Amino acid sequence: METTLSCTNFVTLLIFLCATFYKLDSTLAAAAARAGVNPVSKIATEFIRTSCSQTTYPRLCFSSLSIHALKIQTSPQLLAGTALNVTLSSAKATTAMMSRLSLSHGLKPREVSAMKDCVEELSETVDELRRSIGEMSKLKGHNADFKLMINDIQTWVSAALTDENTCSDGFQGKTLNGNLKTVVRGRIVNVAQLTSNALALINRYALIRG
Fold first, then answer.
1. Which of 16, 135, 157, 185 has the maximum number of C-beta atoms within 10 A of its C-beta?
2. From the record, what ranges are coiled-coil (predicted)?
3. Rounded to an integer, what distance in angstroms lies between the CA atom of residue 185 and that of residue 190?
């Protein structure tokens, strides 16, 4: 009788403990959800923050990439690839904006010329970034041609940065009026800074892979 009672008490205690731990775990999970805490996301976010601290524009780097933390996780390759995709999106949007502005009424001939030259430079940037993204997607596992492929990517992204700087230089002086110049140069500088950060992350990935 005592043995039966003891077993019954033990089973009851075990059920009680399991229920308690389950409730505690559920409570903690709910609290984490309410607080917006995701352990995986937190680790990935810190990885991005640390990686971005080694770029020329760390704040822009972190703000543009941290929203992709769950996708990037702690992969240097995914971080560099995502940086390229973010840069490409910005370059395409800026190119489209510049194309529309170049058709605006009231622009002076030299302003139209500067805008069209910049659109051409940015179009080359878009092509170079697309090639870089395509090559980056092929870097899987222990690719025997890694160094050759990463060198191509670095060359294309460097060329894109040069094109952006050339575009920005075209708006020095009095080529454009004040307001238009501020808007245009601001967008171009943003693309150039994103490109610079992407190149830094690519270089870091190349060092890690060796």
1. 157
2. 112-139
3. 8
Domains of the chain by residue range: 1-37, 39-209
**CA 209, CA 77: separation in Å to the nearest integer?**
9
Q: At a CB cut-off of 8 Å and minimum separation 6, what does 81 contact?
A: 133, 136, 137
Amino acid identity of residue 197, one-letter, is: N
DSSP conformational letter for 67:
G
Residue 131's φ and ψ, nearest 5 degrees, are -65, -40
The CATH number for 39-209, chosen from 1.10.287.470, 1.20.1050.10, 1.10.10.10, 1.20.140.40, is: 1.20.140.40
- Extract the tokens encoding 71: 């996708």
* Position with higher pLDDT, 25 vs 108: 108
Q: What is the pLDDT of residue 90?
A: 97
